[in-house]
Amino acid sequence: MRPIYLDNAATSWPKPDVMMQAMMDFNSNIGANPGRSGHRLSVEASRIIFNARDAIASILGAEDTDCIVFTRNATEGLNTIIRGLLQTGDHVITSSMEHNSVMRPLRAAEHDGIELSVIKCSASGDINPDEIASAIKKNTKLIIITHASNVTGIIMPIADIADIARKHDVIFCVDASQTAGSLPINVTKDNVDILVFTGHKSLYGPQGTGGFYIRKGIETLIKPLERGGTGSRSEFEEHPDFMPDLFESGTPNTIGLAGLGAAAEYILKIGVDVIRKKEIGMTKMFLEGVSSIEGVRVYCNTDPNRRTPLVSFTIDGMTPSDISYKLDERFDIMSRPGLHCAPSAHRTIGTFPQGTVRFSFGMFTTEQEIKTAIKAIEILSYEHKK
Predict the structure, then answer these.
(1) Mean of all residue pLDDT scores within the chain
(2) What average pLDDT score do residues 131-144 get?
(3) Which DSSP symbol is given to 112?
(4) Are 274 and 322 in contact (CB under 8 A)?
(5) Are residues 140 and 231 in the same domain?
(6) 310 and 153 in contact (C-beta within 8 Å)?
(7) How far apart, in whole angstroms, are the C-alpha atoms of residue 263 and residue 16?
């Protein structure tokens, strides 16, 4: 019997069977380097990557598959954008709910002469778009905001922020690590310039996969993080300037992208809207179940429609690490305690430095698992009061 896995915001598990099958098929029957040879196995490897790119583009609402760039993870994508775009004297706006994969590159850029404005969110994690508009200056080049917090699950109004960015001719980048695959996204309709995703969370792909969407024309403003072999224009020693080769150097993680592509096609068959509806139901069920348990505190807006299937909570008198340990040892429930690589977010909601316990549900989470988790929290709270 498998454990009750409620740590999908860190990495989703279990994965769809088609993901593993696609990776095994690649390793057993293809195995070649895409774009580097003229034989049929190399061509087939290239086809696999193209299909993965096409499936991700469909999930994100991108009109051109060449606007999808693959990286090892969202962190590499975010570093590519931040380090490749910003120059000394530029101004950047972000929020206080960001993950360290945004904050750390920005703090490093700040040391190199970048001006940074961090918009303070409310205690529930909400951001006021008007405050972003008020922070824009003549030298503002980038607004970078999480689509949904990995601490509270609160969903940010990215369409409203995109309108502000477009009005002021500022590039808008969305960190969709927590939302791509489980929350409807349309980068074209929402006027998003750049959107960074990871493959191993709500896209249900393997670890070591991710990437970003970039609106056509924006790529000319960004220096690639790496340069090298791409399999294209091999007669030149200068790096290609066209997409997606501009940002994809070296042998790709083809076996991983085979799995990511299969998982993305699986999501498309189910429908992101269907997944979203199920996850809202699970979140609502959990929130209602713990609402009457004395000593349990849930952080963020309790409306399940305004959050991803993620809940941060504490139990009075117990440390998050102690709660998580007991959930694992006694109830076989997997959770994540602490600061979740987002200390700024925890300062915002008032849970720094100990953090919270985070439950994050996925499309394979069952109602029975939710009920068991609620009961376990009730038992721990009751025992601690005695």
Answers:
(1) 95
(2) 98
(3) T
(4) no
(5) yes
(6) yes
(7) 7
Residues 6 or more apart whose CB falls under 8 angstroms from that of 322 comprise none
Contact 185, 195 (CB under 8 A): yes
Retrieve residue 275's tokens.
């997944």
User: Nearest CA to 59 among 165, 160, 245, 205?
Assistant: 205
CA atoms within 13 A on the CB side of 221: 16
For residue 166, the enclosing domain spans 17-270
Structure token pair of residue 331: 């109830």
Please say whether the beta carbons of 43 and 53 come within 8 A: no
Q: Where are the alpha helices (DSSP H) in the chain?
A: 17-29, 40-60, 74-85, 100-111, 129-135, 158-167, 254-270, 272-290, 320-331, 343-349, 367-385
Q: What is the pLDDT of residues 244-272, one digit of tens each?
A: 989 999 899 999 999 999 999 999 999 99
Dihedral sign for Cα 241, 226, 19, 340, please.
negative
Tokens representing 87 are 């120059």
Provide the sign of the torsion angle of the four alpha carbons 119, 122, 123, 124, taken in this order: negative
Closest Cα to residue 79, out of 247, 317, 206, 265?
247
Q: Which of 176, 170, 181, 127 is nearest to 344 (CA)?
A: 127
Global confidence as pTM: 0.96
Residues 334 and 266 in one domain: no
Tens of pLDDT, residues 18-41: 999 999 999 999 999 998 778 999
Let me know whether 246 and 266 are in one domain: yes
CA distance 295 to 285: 19
- One-letter amino acid at 35 equals G
Say yes or no: 226 and 292 in one domain: no
pLDDT digits (tens, 9 = 90+) for 36-82: 778 999 999 999 999 999 999 999 999 899 999 999 999 999 999 99
Query: What is the average per-residue pLDDT within 294-321?
Result: 94
Length of the chain: 386
CATH number, residue 364: 3.90.1150.10
109 vs 105: CA distance, rounded Å:
6
Beta-bridge mates of residue 91: 115, 140
As a whole number of angstroms, the distance between CA 49 and CA 252 comes to 9
Burial class of residue 123, CB neighbours in 10 A (0-12, 13-18, 19+): exposed
CB contact set of 75 (below 8 Å; sequence gap of 6+) = 101, 210
